[in-house]
Amino acid sequence: MRSIAVINQKGGVGKTTSSVNLAAALAESGRRVCLLDLDPQAHASLHFGITAHGDAPTMYEVLCGNASLEQARQPVDGNDLISVVPSNLDLAAAELELAGEVGREMILRDRLEEEQEPFDYLILDCPPSLGVLTLNALVAVREVFLPLQPHFLALHGLSKLLRTVEVVSRRLNSRLRLTGVMLCMYDSNTRLAAEVSTDVDEFFHASKSSRDFFNQAKFFETRIRRNIRLAEAPSFGQSILQYAPDSNGAADYRALAAEVLAQESAAAAELISRAA
Question: What is the pLDDT of residues 191-216, one digit of tens each?
């Protein structure tokens, strides 16, 4: 199973949109996918039309030890290939409640080790911060995908984010690697988008030899173009593949999923080569 945390401490860069629609595109390709909503704003849950209500357990109950992931997991539109562990505003309290817990960074990892369901992909939509929730995600997964908007302000704080991932990789989760960088809200008609894309690409290529935690990083060729359909889909509780399957947004996330699946194939081929 591939476990992927989609993170960026800056909001509005396409993090939740990418988490939801990449999950949907992978499921469309026949993979079994579970999306964990770790953002108290619960935008990923709402995007799939799931609202936590009544006594239904959420990520808050999972992290506080009052429910298992299996108990909190909900299917999306009866689709056996994709499910969501939803969030709600209660999750914001977890940051405070877990602050005094010994080993608070390991809680989600321990919950995932109890998981019995055989998923192909586990995708974690993280909050726009570098607090306890994001730290739990980084300790629990093996891969990080980094969504970026090709804009100067969107790059602000990138070095701090990468330092955090590197520290977690070195001290808490030696398996953690940055394996994917994706550009969202891309406008091919602007020179700025092309310049920022080039700068980020050159930065990651130059850093691969000196920083182990992203020597496997792939700068995805797919650019997620600006598309009004992507902004409309959450209000209907649907992924872009359901809401507007013929739109540019749907095409882009299908192409991104194909690149992610190609990573999987390349890794399998490398293992076979080493065994031979």
Answer: 777 777 777 777 777 666 556 677 77
What's the half-sphere exposure (Cβ side, CA atoms, 13 Å) at 62? Answer: 31
Both ends of the chain: CA-CA distance in Å? Answer: 23
The helix (H) or strand (E) run that includes residue 46 is: helix 43-47
User: Could you tell me the two tokens for 88?
Assistant: 């709600």
119 phi/psi in degrees, rounded to 5: -90, 155
User: What tens digit of pLDDT does each residue of 129-165 get?
Assistant: 888 999 999 999 999 999 988 777 666 667 778 888 8
Q: How far apart are CA 261 and CA 276, in angstroms?
A: 23
Three-point CA angle 156, 158, 161, nearest 5° = 130
Q: Which of 163, 157, 40 is nearest to 96 (CA)?
A: 40
Q: What structural domains and CATH numbers belong to the chain?
A: 2-275 (3.40.50.300)
Cβ 134 vs Cβ 127: under 8 Å: yes
- Write down the pTM of the prediction: 0.90
Q: Measured over all CA atoms, what is the biggest interatomic distance in the chain, rounded to whole angstroms? A: 55
Q: Which two tokens stand for residue 52?
A: 């936590």
Classify 221 as helix, strand or coil. Answer: strand
Quick one: which H or E segment has residue 266? helix 248-275
Assess contact for 8 and 146: CB atoms under 8 A: yes
Dihedrals phi, psi of 220, to nearest 5 degrees: -60, 135
